[in-house]
Design goal:
6-stranded mixed β-sheet
Length: 254
């Protein structure tokens, strides 16, 4: 495994685009990776040779640790903060607007923005190790940008539980019971088999029907370009607060 961050696209078989993101710090997401991830999803959606997209992360442990902690600490002004959180907004909106079905493969823990990524795909499969946590309140902010997509997937009650109890991981089975995961598997091998089986099935179905279904799935989210920008502004302001700066410093010393 490379120790360099990347976003890569591969073709495990004709018609399938496998998009993989990786960062050596538990697959956290700095601005550069967020930008590349959004543009890669958009490009795959526009590619006529692609019918199904698989979204995954590299490594065999954490799926995604959310925002890059080092980048959060370095934010010193509102525009920089807004731009950083817009990175998550752009990934979510890229998934929303993509006309192809996106299958999520979650092999390990999903934290903060990682829960947002798992919620933004159309069908998500996971291992039993894929517990979830919205940890933003610990840092003096909140899951404002990912909130709409998490709420859309698991409902306001479950989303608020994750948001308020920000220090606790909820199990993969809990996430399955709330609708985040369609199914949970014993290990990554079983997960990969299930992901490819679903992708193969989708290859055998009508691409035009899939495109129409995708629009139906995302009805009611047409205003998310504006909504998620407003949410990025909320986070961009909070990350500059004295409370958040102190919280980030405390975590950086742990």
């Amino acid at each position: 495994m490379s120790d360099q961050a990347y976003v890569k696209q591969s073709t495990p078989k004709p018609g399938i685009a496998e998009i993989t993101f990786f960062h050596p710090s538990h697959n956290s997401l700095p601005s550069g990776i967020l930008t590349k991830l959004a543009t890669t999803i958009t490009a795959a959606g526009e590619d006529p040779a692609v019918q199904v997209i698989i979204l995954k992360s590299g490594g065999d442990r954490t799926f995604c640790a959310g925002a890059s902690f080092n980048e959060l600490i370095s934010i010193g002004d509102f525009q920089t903060g807004k731009k950083f959180f817009m990175g998550f907004a752009n990934v979510i909106n890229a998934c929303r607007k993509c006309p192809k079905i996106i299958i999520g493969r979650v092999q390990g823990k999903a934290v903060g923005g990682g829960v947002g990524v798992a919620s933004a795909v159309d069908y998500c499969l996971a291992t039993k190790f894929a517990s979830v946590k919205l940890s933003e309140l610990n840092l003096g902010i909140g899951p404002f940008v990912v909130g709409p997509v998490v709420e859309r997937k698991i409902g306001l009650s479950a989303m608020s539980q994750l948001t308020i109890n920000a220090d606790q991981f909820m199990s993969a089975d809990w996430a399955k019971s709330k609708g985040l995961y369609a199914d949970v598997f014993e290990d990554a091998a079983a997960l990969d088999e299930a992901v490819m089986k679903l992708a193969d099935y989708l290859l055998s179905t009508n691409p035009e029907a899939q495109r129409m279904l995708k629009k139906v799935f995302w009805q009611g989210a047409e205003n998310w370009d504006e909504l998620l920008e407003q949410r990025a502004e909320m986070s961009g302001k909070l990350v500059l607060s004295e409370y958040t700066k102190k919280a980030l410093q405390r975590f950086s010393l742990q």
